[in-house]
Amino acid sequence: MAELKDLPGLGAKTATWLRDAGIHTPDDLKALGAVGAYTKISRQSGVRPSLNLLYALAGAIEGVHWLTMAQQEKGRLLMELEGYTEALQLHAGADEMEIMVDDLSRAPVQALLQEHLSDMYATSPAESVHALDIERLKSPSITFYSGWSGKRLMGCAALKALSPKQGELKSMRTSTHARHCGVASRLLTHILQECTSRGYQSISLETGSQSYFEPARKLYEKFGFCYCGPFGEYRADPNSLFMTLTLHDQNRHEPTS
What we know:
The chain is built from eight helices and seven strands. The chain is an alpha+beta fold and 257 residues long. Strands 1-2-3-4-5-7-6 form a seven-stranded mixed beta sheet, with helices on both faces. Strand 3 and strand 4 (166-174) form a beta hairpin. Helix 2 crosses helix 4. The longest helix has 25 residues, at 71-95.
């Protein structure tokens, strides 16, 4: 079996760095990719190594010496590294996101809600759109939450009181730059915890039946929501699906795999 130090452009020192980062074989390196391996070495060492290491790792995976690598390929690797680093930062931002009650006065929040409304009207017939505008979200029965990582808006959600025992999830939206980073799960967990603190027995929601809404429906299913009939003032609509979650078990606040 080939060893890391035998790959073109790599030596014993680089092989040691790779092993220290948990990358022990050429197959491990290939599976992780040059950018992933470079990032693991950076995190393991606490410093950012020379970019020549990135090029060397990519060349080794392809079976060529990095000194022969075209400048165009180096540029592609740098772009991939930048995107990978930003994704890691966004995931960290989602983990550390501060969720707060929001008065809907800040420009980023208003822009996110306008984007949400525009997408809803672009996806469903107007008569089937139940998303709320800013003024309606200011209703005394609704508590609006926004999630922030520093000064960057990550997403929002709202909780509407339907009765002393039932709430409704509204205006669930993740900022475009923060998608696939766990923001929606964090917001939904926060909403469910708030429901429990209020003594609600259930929380319900309306969502679209179109394929556009499938990721949202899968998220709700992971949290234990079940499909149900129309509730409150809703009426049966082929463009709408209704879901509800009974809140008798606090373990339901965590998604299932």
